[in-house]
Amino acid sequence: MNFEVHIPFVELLGFELRKFEGGEAEIAFAPRPEHENSFSVVHGGASMTLLDVAMAHAARSVEPGMGCVTIEMKTSFMRPAQGALLARGRLLHRTATMAFTEGRIVDAQGRLCAHATGTFKYVPRLPVGGRKTQPLNTIRTD
Question: What pTM was computed for the model?
């Protein structure tokens, strides 16, 4: 199953969407050596990104025409993440504009490596190509 939108950072990490329906999402991650920290385990930032994407997709699965932006996220790490990982995101509650979620990462043996909660805001999707932006620290002449 492919991600519905182009997310360059997710593509760089190599995440694979496995489930996207009914308030749930599953994303597989096969970490490579460049995803590790100095202890030779998956870097916490990669794990947090995996949780963020899984929870956002769980929220979006009930509103696939909308985008989601992260408002808040809290992560707890239980054990070092090594080898093939699976993140499961679940929508706990939603309002018209907000989604409250949780996510878990388990290793190939089914052991819990990390848990997160997240709050997301539903936003309209950007038009193809995104918004017109101006580089930072430049002077406008128009």
Answer: 0.88
